[in-house]
Amino acid sequence: MLSSTESVNSVLAPGNLRKVHHIALNVKDMQASRHFYGTILGLHELTGDEVPATLVELVASGKVANFVTPDGTILDLFWEPELSPPDPNPEKTFTRAYHLAFDIEPELFDRAVSVIRENKIAIAHGPVTRPTGRGVYFYDPDGFMIEIRCDPEAS
Prior knowledge:
The chain is α/β, with parallel strands linked by helices. About 15% of the residues lie in helices and about 30% in strands.
């Protein structure tokens, strides 16, 4: 609903934004981040002709890596070797973004938690069960919080 100070031309209409196009994260250690997102979390890394034409040079030089999530959202990792948060303690949020959440089938949730533990990734919070489902929170190699969550199991 428009306020009295807004006109129809000063806002986007519901539905004008179609989807999240991509998420970009700065990473300090590209190899560790590629391993984390590609190997541990199992996201498909774009290679060869899959890489967008606008990023071919950056990917070839090792400055960018692109992954695609199961719903088609692109996760761009930008290598920033001098990256350091204002506070190295990942418990203290240092960005306006709080976390990136991946959805998983309820029957695979416990397996995801096992994978996190088997890879010796410290769990920041959880696993938790809420009316909205189950979730587990942990950090990527650069201290950005990741969540794996699932809907409640049908009874």
